[in-house]
Amino acid sequence: MGIVKYIGKRVLTLIPVLLGITILAFILNCMTPGDPVEMILTRDGDVMPTQEQIDIVTERLGLNDPYPIQYLKWLKNSLTGEFGQSFVTNKSISSEMVRRLPYTLKIAVLAMGFTVVMGLGLGILMAAFRDSWVDRILRSLTTIMLSIPGFWLAILLIFLFCEKWQLLPSSGYSGFASLLLPSFSVACSTIGVSARLTRTSILDELGRQYITVAKAKGLKNKAVVIRHALPGALIPIMTFLGTYFAGILGGSTISEMIFGIPGIGSYALDAVKAKDFPVIQAYVLYTGLVYVAANLLIDILYIVVNPKIRVGEKAE
Amino acid sequence: MKIKEMKVGTMIAVIVLAGIILMSVFAPLIAPYDPLEVNIKNSLQQPSAQHWLGTDAIGRDLLSRVIYGGRQSIILAVVATALSMLVGLIIGVIAGYFGGVVDMVITSFSSIFQGLPGTSMMIVVAGMVPGIPGMIVAIVITSWVGFSRIVRGEVMKIKQEKFVEGLRGLGAGNLRIVLRHITPNLISNIIIIFTTRIARVILSVASLSFLGLGLQPPTPDWGVMINEARVHFRSNPLLIIAPGAFIIAISLSVNVIGDALRDKLDVHKDSLRDY
């Protein structure tokens, strides 16, 4: 029962966040220099639009209303999934988003998988062999991983895996294999971060009393790390998963662009370059929603793993 | 930190960082060529005695461009990090010190920002607000929150301590207590967070410039250079490798120094484990 109540409460606290996301998406549009009406009308050629044309488009976009009214109208449309048309292509934005979202989600999920599996793996290795040469090498490796810019790694990986060794497809989407490099280049730094965190969390756990007891009973070092210290160390690691996901979503934008994956990130980047406001608004909303949903999922996972939470206290 | 106590790795990191900073400051004296000088006849040269790293697509000397390449982005990263920490510090101190309704309002406001996927928002804001101010605004509004939360927690702890009570008893005003007595107590935290943050912001600045949303061509900047070289690097891989190596060198050395500082100042607080 406690779990349901806790989740209910969590969902309620998400409402202001969701409202905040919609307000941000809307404000971005108003803040931006340049008149969208003029942009639409001058996009096709170099003919100066007449005042009459400007008035018609302004009216059609509802830009004569005061901002709060514009916001409410826009919110109403957005809630029904109606984001209007792209200024550039005149295509429906929502159908484009729905078509593209799965690619971004696949990259994000795969990158999360890399982060968790490789991060935990490297972290456990470092903790099990702490202060040995294995630990030292891996610690340097993970620090290097979090210092590499993702876009640079992406270009390098394309060059090596796709052009030099021709092992993987380099551009566009043609099945699972084309997701490997984009996901890895996004995940690289978060793998480094989570491995370091895993190491310190396990070492912290090893300092606790019950571990001393386990050791006194004659258990081997590696057994202690995996059987006893790891479960306790998982909890602080889980609290950071949400943060990693934010980094991954953003990184995916750059990765999609470099690898030519038709996800919502590359869509947004094109829109940013073309000042295609409705698309950008929709992107802010979509990524905001995905991020909020992912965090909720992580939270639920967190309380399933950590029963202490059910008593009411939540470790931030 | 005394030099004798430093580990070898930390010492190398300090030397590398100092080297890059000196190189950037004295770039006009060190660089063999003008980093903006175009010479189409000389385009995409392989490394030679005249051009140690070769030339780029329009014949500019790569070595000179790499030497100049950190000048603006390093300053921008420092400014953006400092500004976001200043914003976070002010908001965090206010929330922590006054507590109550003020704290509640600030905390819920912060949680909205925390609910946003930072990097995506940074790209969008940098794309919508033009120029270098746009890039700084984008970095600041997506990174002040984490810091203000840490400051808030620390201030709340310090506030409980006896000496603050004593000061109030002596008639010290709120502003005085905050500025003269609470903020100085945060210095070691601030130093650690600053180093860990700036490593990340350097990468953000490079990414935004790479995307064309930060520094613009023909600026000799590492991020911009990597973007420009995307088409041509096959004929001279150094076009990508050299600027990339410098970005990695600076962010790696800052990260290593940050780790050393954290060990040195012996920070066990979870809040500062800002991985």
From TrEMBL, chain A:
Chain segments annotated as transmembrane: 12-34, 107-129, 141-161, 173-193, 229-249, 283-305
Primary subcellular site in the record, as a coarse category: membrane
Membrane topology: Multi-pass membrane protein
InterPro entries: BPD_transp_1_N (IPR045621), MetI-like (IPR000515), MetI-like_sf (IPR035906)
Location in the cell: Cell membrane
Cellular component GO terms, alphabetical: plasma membrane
Similarity section: Belongs to the binding-protein-dependent transport system permease family.
Protein name: ABC transporter permease
